[in-house]
Structures
1.
Amino acid sequence: MWEIATNFTEVLGALLALLWGLAARWPGRVLVWSGLLAVVVQVVLVGLTWPTGWDYVSNRVVLALPLMLAPAALVVVVSLPRLEPRWPVHAAAVGALLDFYVVFVDRPAPPYTVNVIVLWAILLGATGLLWWRQGRIRALPVLAVVVVVLGGAVFYLQRASVLPDRLDMASMTNLDWGGGPVGTGHEHAMRNVTDLTGPSGRPDAAFTLVAQEKRITLSSGATVDAWTFNGQVPGPELRVRQGDLVQVTLVNHLKSEGVTVHWHGLDVPDAEDGVAGVTQDAVRPGGTYVYRFRATQAGSFWYHTHQDSYLAVDRGLFGPLTVLPPEATGLDLPVMAHEWTTPQGVRTAFGTSDTQRRVAVAPGTPVRLRLINTSDNTVWGAADKDPRTFVLTGTPFTVAAIDGTDLVGPTPLRDVRLPMGVGGRYDLTFTMPGHPVRLTDLADPGGGLLLGEGPAPAVRSDLPDFDPAGYGAGVRSPFKAFDRRFKLILDDGPAFYDGSLSFPSTINNLLFPDTPTLMVREGDAVETTFVNRGHNDHPMHLHGHHALVLSRNGEPVRSWWTDSLEILPGQTYTVAFHADNPGVWMDHCHNLKHAFQGMVMHLAYEGVHSPFQVGHKTINRPE
Ligand code: C2O
Ligand code: CU
């Protein structure tokens, strides 16, 4: 409901401006009354979206509607019934156009002070001019002025959106202190990101990852010119025991591409986080880099490059990272859901299996499938807002863990669909029955993973969605009071980014590097609220921390710890985390195309300094 109504409110202003324009040119009752009717419809539509929450209508109520209503009222009072004078009708066209500009093009986020001043100055100025000329304004000169002003604005915006050649991570200007004590920013840094390293000593588990090009053949025979770790996609599973000191040596044998390794979901020390331009420089071809961290969290994680990640993760620079608890038994299998670009088209796959793959499992075996969604859902023009959806058929099962953290009191499930945001992980556990069990990606109902002997069970897609918000007993929140609260409005609209025009997704109507840097002090309890006011889903991923989900759309949930939270259009989530891992951390949408187009911000601890740079003249392109 919200989505349909809100989408209509975005375009109605343009339609109305056209109606008023025609009515001013060819005055007639039908046009004028249609215009007035459209105004009423706009008010009703905004009324329909009102219950979704103030954050979803504030831009309409505070900014857009008054611009439309005030001149429309003038038409009623001054120009009816004879439709003379005509200037109020012209003014109404200007007001409707401004409404369209606000809700469709500009999409401002609070506070709206500057927007109010500018928009009303335009409306009042135009109305004054029209009144002075009695609405008899010649179209050609007006058109010429509009074209010159608009052209100038577009040219300026295009130039201004080009990213700088060199941007110091330490020079971000939009610092948000979340209502807590304001500190010194980055200037008086006591600690450097590069000092925040993992422990020294002899590693319990040591791996080498070699980034290299390789042509990969999927099970269907389709081929991928992949970028791989160790010549395989996904990269080798790094399987360690909880508590292990892990050492990974990265070697870059790619011909002309930098690489890093980020440990998605593992809250490692900042210098080990593997983000080009934030925690290290991208490793150049021929270079190496050593990561060290202690694997304190048992659970399902994954690793991937964080250099050109939109391009490079898609092409294969990722793999599973499993931290086993001491008591692990049975079949324990990471399943990485990916989509590959091949000359034969896009292939939906688990790993490299884009056809059905069978695995023998003896009945009675405890099974844990570590389902990991690695696939950017914006790459292939699929509807951005649809999360990938999986079905496990043939057995009751539990979602034992989400995002590498065990749930409290999960209960058996059956006949549900599992929608998952990008970057997220669900651990599905069950005891192998005497007949086959099948895991399917609904994007490819014929494929998937088949466990056990016998005919594959049929897959149904008409099932209710699994919803973690109402599942299990929920974590009892350890948060009492908050030192800082942040609010982030997610939206999308037409804009330039780095010189090109597209439909980027924004945070508080800003794109990196203008997005806010969330500033905290070590020890803070931090609350963050995400409001998705746009058209796309945004799996928001904060590095270095797990956040506890507290509420959705104002309703309390069965809380769970997350590091990749799927936020659908029309959803507001409030989460909380402890600022207990000092550093400068990326916080971004894991629909990597969105990140690539500027949906990136950072969490920074007061007094911690990143010496790294991003920008066209540096090697670092983390997105
Ligand atoms: Cu999966 Cu910023 O990463
Ligand atoms: Cu996004």
2.
Amino acid sequence: MLTPIATDIYAVGHIDWAVRDFHGYETDRGTTYNSYLLQFEKTAVIDGVKAPFAADWLGTLCQQTSLDKIDYIVANHAEPDHSGALPALVAAAPQATVVCNKKTQDFLTGYYDTSAWRFQLVKTGDTLALGAGKTLKFIEIPLVHWPDSMATYLVEEQFLFCNDAFGEHYATNLRFDDENPLSTLIFEAKSYYANIVNPYSKRVAAVLAQLANVPIRMICPSHGVIWRKNLDAILGAYQNWANQRVQPKVMVLYDSMWHRTATMAEAIMEGVAEVSGVTCKVMPARAITENALATEMLDTAAVALGSSTLNQQMMPMMAARLCYIQGLNFPGRAAFAFGSHGWGKGGPELLDAKIDELKWTRLCPPVLAKFEPTPEVLATCRQSGRALAEKALELAAASGYQKTCID
Ligand code: FEO
């Protein structure tokens, strides 16, 4: 779809209304693969689309330019959702030079036969003159979210083509942020960050510091909308997420075999509710998605982990959920384990050990019930819930979270 975004600058990417599984990430609202066409004295295309949409992409480009007029193809990142259609464009525009950093070249060469491609390698600070007084400047942003990730800055217009950073999976023909509900955009950006970018938060914080002195009028990512109005909203939200700032929120994540552990989860929630200013989200492991769990975890200060015991292990769905969370790396939460067991033990104890692996702080030893939780056990659950809520308040106050439009 061709959308003018400024004089001689067009969005030319593809809207993927149908995708619901993006390499395991659930994309309930579809996504977009954004590509940009810059037509000055030189013509440049920034980033590409996924392979199945190559013909559509070339058709969109041809609405505005002859392919033999393309001088540069800037590849900010080699992941196939942006590079899959590059071989088709290079074949159709063999005169074009592919501009990228060394890592991207290596990755592209790993994916495709690039033996006939003309490469120009760039690094941070390098520039490329497009004529008509327009200049591209390159800023490497390694591990946001791949080692090759790069942003391209159109100096005179102050447009930042930042690839995956500041993106969201959200299919819309309305290409600008101010044409869409801001709360939906920030929520989808939060989900995207939690599930894709979060492991690299230290790098993101460094990039945000790096960009603090760069004037930006438009953020043009490779997924979702172009930010031209609410830049403070997306940049502020990224400051929260990159710095692992948390809210006074408690999550009770559990799986239960015969509802005894579920009863304990309810009692913990009741204890949390006794503390003013703290919200509690009960997340039954089998009733939620991994994406929803990670999104919720991003700004949650404290967690109660519950499981029955199955074959001397924690419930398998708890193991799966925690494997996913551990990979995404949410350090610094306060936590305790709980659960009911019958004639065998192991589930809550394994959850308790997991607290160390997650780099969380243990609030108290596991709260255990043998078969039916007694009134005394449920009272301990409520007391532990209260203590966890108090800790959540403390962690949130220390983290400096700035409220966003979805809070
Ligand atoms: Fe949208 Fe890292 O690819």
